[in-house]
Amino acid sequence: METLDKVKAGQSVTVRKIRGTGPVKKRLMDMGITQGTEITVVKLAPLGDPIEMKLRGYDLSIRKADAELVEVE
Amino acid sequence: MKIAIAGNPNSGKTTLFNALTGLNQFVGNWPGVTVEKKEGKLKKKKNVHIMDLPGIYSLSPYSLEEIIARDYLVNERPDVIINIIDGTNLERSLYLTTQLAELGIPMVIAVNMMDSVDKAGDKLDTKKLSEQLGYPVVGISALKKRNIQQLIKETLKAGEDKGSVPVMKFNSVAEEAITGIKEIVGSKADGINDRWLAVKFFERDEKVSDTYKLNKSEAEAVEKYIKKCEEKLDDTSESIIANERYKYAAKVASSSFVKKDKGALTVTDKIDKVVTNRFLALPIFVVVMFIVYFVSVTTVGAIVTDWTNEVLFAELIAPGVEDWLVSINTADWLTGLIVDGIIGGVGAVLGFVPQMFVLFLFLAFLEACGYMARIAFILDRLFRKFGLSGKSFIPMLIGTGCSVPGIMASRTIENERDRKMTIITSIFMPCGAKLPIIALIAGALFNEAWWVAPSAYFMGIAAVIISGIILKKTKPFAGDPSPFVMELPAYRWPTVGNVLKSMWERGWSFIKKAGTVVLLSSIFIWFTSSFGIIEGKFTMVEDLSDGFLSKIGTALAWIFKPLGFGEWRLTVATIMGLVAKENVVSTIGILYGFAEVSESGEEIWELLAASYTQIAAYSYLAFNLLCAPCFAAIGATKREMNSGKWTWFAVGYQTVFAYAVALIIYQIGTLISTGAFGLWTVIAFIVLGLMLYLLFRPQPKRSLTGERITA
Prior knowledge:
The complex is a heterodimer of chains A (73) and B (711). Chain A has 73 residues and is an alpha+beta fold. Helix content of chain A is 18%, strand content 37%. Chain A has one domain (4-72): Ferrous iron transport protein A (FeoA) (SH3 type barrels, Roll), CATH 2.30.30. Chain A has two helices and five strands; from the N terminus they run βαβββαβ. Chain A has a five-stranded antiparallel β-sheet. With 711 residues, chain B is α/β, with parallel strands linked by helices. In chain B, strands 2-3-4-1-5-6-8 form a seven-stranded mixed β-sheet, sandwiched between helices. In chain B, strands 7-9 form a two-stranded antiparallel ribbon. In chain B, β5, α3 and β6 form a beta-alpha-beta unit. β4 of chain A pairs antiparallel with β10 (485-487) of chain B, so a sheet runs across the interface.
């Protein structure tokens, strides 16, 4: 299963599912990462982490460790 | 009437708040926490109170800001909510709107940044938006003050109206469960909308179930409804609700908003192509920081600060006040207290005010234009390794000028754990006032060797990293699994008014503090250093060495014996360093019998060299660089932590850490250079071992569920 942290810059994916429970998952969902959301990974930070992505018309940055919870296709 | 302004961060809440209240506002902290609390009164209508709630994305119980906003809305029940939403970011803003609606409080929606929407050629139909949501919608530009009067009119009208408020409906399966739960918990909703309560119970919100206790059979019945729904939809209840809300928000947004050019790069995209570029990001960052540091710490700030310290206070105010006090025959001791104690002590701190204003001006600008979020983005990886965040860099950098503005700059770090860690560690960076101590030790014992000063900076950086790693693994810092999820807001040209206001608010809170903590401690130090007992009589002393302070120093000197400088003069100088680190060198000078010494204390180099080894001197340097900072910085810590307990922890940690480092340097250094071995050498090795253990032990595992943050 591909996860969001593995997506290359410039690629667009659709969210399938978010693993885990509790605050981290809720925070990701509150920011708009919900089932079916289209996400475009824009770039990685110069040091390789975190990730910058576009979704729902705005820019969001999350760490790879948190992005790993997001299953995409 | 009470109005609350709620909305996402960066939606222009503060600009709107300023536009509505003018100068009628009060800034404080929410009780017990450092989240800013702004209250004001509507211009020309003094009986209308306006509360600016913290910027939030959701009403979940997981962040301090959210809990505060939610508690305020639920417990204080304002008469009307102004939900400010960013017209250029409609979908995500509406997610919060659906949650606010459930509170059952009349609401007006202010779609902000209509000017940017128009400029981009996009179309936002506020009428359609209003039809779909069922709330009055006003398109405004808080920045250009467009349509503010109409917003006020609509808000006051909605505030009078006590009718029911429309809410969104979830899918039929979830609705069924929520309706069932509402029947069970509805009776507990005293004044609170029963639907909100039912949805929260459905989401298994722990804050709500702690507050509104259910008996066992009720709780079981509620759980049964949730389980049934979860099984049917194959997802957790919390996810179901979030999904439904976003689906609704997307639907509403797509029917009322038409983007002109879908794939086109925005101005922000273009700027970010350069500013957060893989190769250019770090060089650009270095240049920006260099400018900020250079202007605020070394040039403009330093010139103005020197002038305030050396001319305004030392030459104009102090002698002026002294002459006046003498002319009206004030008692000597009172003149001393006012001139040397209060003006000297408080003045030393107020001297930093101009420098801080320059710095706060830059910070306010960097924050408001959107670059601060990029700094965190660029540096996060580096700082995360030692328990800090990307935003910790700025407090550290500023801390090399003065810890006080450094600590205050930590306010831009939203995550509370990161902020505390930054405050505790940022004082390890050698501030400007510690430079004379370095010069004294380098000159007196190391023949002005070039490496002493850089080594002090390296020691500071090492102390930050080591402490970061050690503290990261301790319980209070390891428990909170708060993720790094950060919006990169669109770049915006900030308004002069907002930047100046932010600068003034921070600067003023510092001045107020100088009037309390620093004032009291200055009086204490002045008293203990100017009074003493000579020949059995309590009297004012001419010589610092006769005062109570030197007695205290003598009594405490043994503590520093294992560090190699257990002698009363150096001890007193260290204590005087609490008032201001500049005092350390001048105190040593006075105690060695010189009326006044130059900044680096050249006059006493020989005397010091005769009585101390290089290792003892370096240990003294290490202790003074790392131990509890001056009262001004402790005061800033207290202000930013907003907790006495945490302030004591910070100061205690810093001092214990300094002691441990100095002990290791002196004991192990002496062992290597002279072969002297004793009980303290053993202890030094134990301390070293303990530090290495704390440094290298495994990180306690991060749990995905985590603990809740308690407000």
